[in-house]
Amino acid sequence: MNETHPSPAGPATAPRADDRAILILLAALTAVKLVLHLAVNLGGGYGIFRDELYYLACADHLAFGYVDQPPLSIWLLAVVRALIGDSLFAIRLLPAVAGAALVFVTGLLARRMGGGPLAVGLAATAALVAGEPMALSSFWSMNVFDLLLVALAMYCVVRLIDTDEPRYWILVGLLLGLGLLNKVGVLWIGLGLAAGLVVTRERKWLATRWPWLGGTIAMALFLPYVVWNATHDWAHVAFIESAVTGKYSGLDAWTFLSGLALNMNPSTLPLWLSGLGWLLFARAGARYRILGVVWAAACLVLLANGHSKSGYLASAFAMLYAAGGVAWERWIPARTALRAAAVAVVALGAALVPFATPILPVETYVRYAEALGIAPSTAEGHELAELPQFYADMFGWEEKAAAVAEVFHALPEEERAVATIFAENYGRSGAIDYWSDEYDLPGAIGNHNNYWLWGPGDARGEVVIVLGGDRDDLAERFASVELAGVATCDYCIPYERDVPIHVARGLVVPIEELWPLIGHYD
Length: 522
Description:
alpha/beta, five-stranded mixed β-sheet, 60% helix, 8% strand, globular
């Protein structure tokens, strides 16, 4: 880290002693983040998350795309599963590492922008306690890798500005291309970067081949998912349309903006707002103004959509935390006051950590939330009980597999040989698949997202165990239907409690005719 660091007037050499202190500080904060998530992963009474069950099922069907996401995170999950298994700790190890790396990269961003130890410490601390990254580092999904890849890309943009080395455009293109192959929302970051090239002094690069080459690399990496969609009736587009008109239809501009304040942890709000203002309006921040434009443009695109979740912008916050740390270090000359501000960020941030990652036992969490007057929440409009949807969706899945197994093994041998297990959402189907070996079950089929695309397999409809569904609807499609059991669970989301298990026999129409009619994307 013994490099030059820019000031408003140009590069200036930073003290070597600061570099050592900063490395130690960043290593410590990164370690805190990693140890926190590893400790959560080792226990606490929470189980596997609904989406993790689905992603594991996707990892059994490797492809260039899926209804709800590009393939990169699924390919990574398949590698993890092959190397260390699919236990809860195993599948959450890489997200924990990525979340910790995000803390380190955020601190490096602050350093590259000219920040000293206090600026770097503030930025990295904000990244550590921020709610959305904290939650996304707690389970497997594409989202935590999205945060890290975008932060690395923005770090390369800063290095590009500092050095005028055009080959950084290659790295930016590679990182954003991998980001697109991981999550489509990186398109908004790319659009913001393009806007920043037009409206800031970095427009000088447009006269060279380098940004165009970087963009070409990014789109080339994204191309496999575009081709997959084109050959699957634009499934992801249909998925997005369904989400906007369905479960996210209640979201509006206010829920989006207020969500930015709440979901990123209110303790970090003054810091990232300061960072945004410093980048967009301060003379000292003009050198890196393009980063502020990236955030603002992506935010405007999501606002224009009208039904965006605030989490869609989470990947753009590392650079604001970094800029905020630098701004505070410049604006607050009294080091005692600056340290007090850092302590306040840590204290309030730590108080809200239990709402972002399941660090508290369930009963303790419920009492803690009640004491603070924080009610369970969801962005999807579902009825909730004692837990927010994020935590409630970590309960009830093995109970469903066990209940279905009881019904399956009670069937006569000749019916077990031809029986199919069907579920109407990917959590239920994924639970059957995840515990199929333990409970000696056949794999599940389903009509939700990729489960529907994977089709009915060898099922003919002679005997179908249906987890969920409506008996009257089943009676219209089968010769006979009987209620054979009920899957119950504690703490799970209410609509997953008391789920009926029917045994349906004698499908009255060929399954090839029925299957195209029953799929749903959401």
